[in-house]
């Protein structure tokens, strides 16, 4: 997605060989028009897959997932990292290990929002080690829902998440794939 | 906003005299079409106010704020409850006291996203005691930005937040106002 690549080149900041900061348009400040086009792109890629529901994780996944849901006319569920006061239902809960922070977090989804009838598209902002995506897959497995694919805004291809998921047979659609952040330079995978 | 009232009556669950659960369409599962119409409504109400930026708080404020930003063609900033690894900039940080949970949390906004040139619309899903909204106002005050108004999806008028804010001279636009949740029954303020 060329427009997204240009935005990353213009506004992304390489903080280290592993960390790209895109808080100018994706995960702190949001560019709604760009999110709309991201939603259109995911919608186009998964239009023939009879998807019934979109699943993401708060907070940075919400914007691209919501726009995809708007374009596909589908409900969006965001897994919560904290259980809220009103989450009195039965929940699917999974652990997510963060390699960068060396912490374990939990995500929870109310059982009533994912059923064995659902064909689910998972959307997230970043794919690095794949831990968050795999936690979503485990939720879907418990719910006996079908995972149709994963839509990722920015895949860091030099980290193992994309390979792990594809080797599990999961369809992963990344709007851009980053090959390297070495020497402060953003290099994309060219044959996307 | 009649459509929102109907949705609340159909899908809202009264958990107690103070707590209305709307996780079916607002803060766990999201109805993107309803969010779009909420965005249109806020856009219509603030269209003549020369707003330059929308501010909300993760996570439940993101969906209505994003749709308002889309309709108004404005960037959206969401205040973060946790400081992320990439938040290495100078931050505005404010405490938010939660009456229900009896805890103090912090919200942070990067200084680079709010300037003294900005005319800001704050959007949030709920208004109860007003603590979150007031934390946003303090961020805007520190940034010397102008607060144009606050757009709320659901105001619980039996709690003091709306009165507090209006007495401070803040324009508060709530799409629905709930008068009471007593006896498990949702009653709206009629003269909205």
Can you characterise this structure?
Chain A has 192 residues and is an alpha/beta fold. Chain A has helices at residues 2-11, 32-45, 62-72, 131-142, 161-167, and strands at residues 13-14, 20-21, 29-30, 53-57, 76-79, 91-98, 103-110, 119-127, 146-156, 172-180, 187-188. In chain A, the strands form 3 sheets. A 6-stranded mixed beta sheet of chain A has the order 5-4-8-9-10-11, with helices on both faces. In chain A, strand 10 and strand 11 (187-188) form a beta hairpin. In chain A, helix 2 crosses helix 3 (62-72). The mean pLDDT of chain A is 95. The interface between A and B is large, with 38 and 38 residues. Strand 3 (29-30) of chain A pairs antiparallel with strand 5 of chain B, so a sheet runs across the interface.
Quickly describe the structure.
Chain A is of the alpha/beta class and 192 residues long. Helices cover 28% and strands 32% of the residues of chain A. The first copy, chain A, has a six-stranded mixed sheet, sandwiched between helices. The first copy, chain A, has a two-stranded antiparallel ribbon with strand order 1-2.
What's the layout of helices and strands?
The structure is a homodimer of 192-residue chains.
Chain A: H1 2-11, E1 13-14, E2 20-21, E3 29-30, H2 32-45, E4 53-57, H3 62-72, E5 76-79, E6 91-98, E7 103-110, E8 119-127, H4 131-142, E9 146-156, H5 161-167, E10 172-180, E11 187-188
Parallel strand pairs in A: 4-5, 4-8, 8-9, 9-10
Antiparallel strand pairs in A: 1-2, 6-7, 10-11
């Amino acid at each position: 997605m060329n427009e997204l690549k240009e935005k990353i080149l213009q506004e992304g900041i390489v903080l280290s060989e592993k960390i790209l900061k895109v808080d100018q348009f994706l995960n702190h400040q949001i560019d709604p028009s760009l999110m709309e086009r991201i939603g259109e792109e995911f919608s186009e890629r998964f239009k023939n897959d009879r998807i019934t529901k979109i699943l993401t994780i708060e907070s940075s996944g919400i914007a691209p997932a919501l726009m995809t849901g708007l374009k596909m006319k589908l409900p969006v569920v965001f897994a919560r990292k904290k259980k809220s006061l009103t989450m009195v239902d039965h929940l699917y809960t999974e652990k997510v290990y963060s390699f960068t922070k060396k912490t374990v977090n939990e995500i929870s989804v109310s059982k009533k929002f994912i059923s064995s009838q659902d064909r689910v598209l998972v959307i997230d902002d970043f794919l690095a080690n794949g831990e968050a995506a795999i936690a979503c897959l485990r939720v879907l497995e418990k719910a006996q829902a079908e995972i149709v694919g994963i839509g990722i805004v920015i895949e860091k291809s030099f980290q193992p998440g994309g390979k792990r998921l594809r080797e599990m047979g999961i369809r992963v659609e990344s709007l851009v794939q980053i090959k390297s952040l070495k020497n402060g330079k953003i290099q994309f995978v060219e044959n996307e």
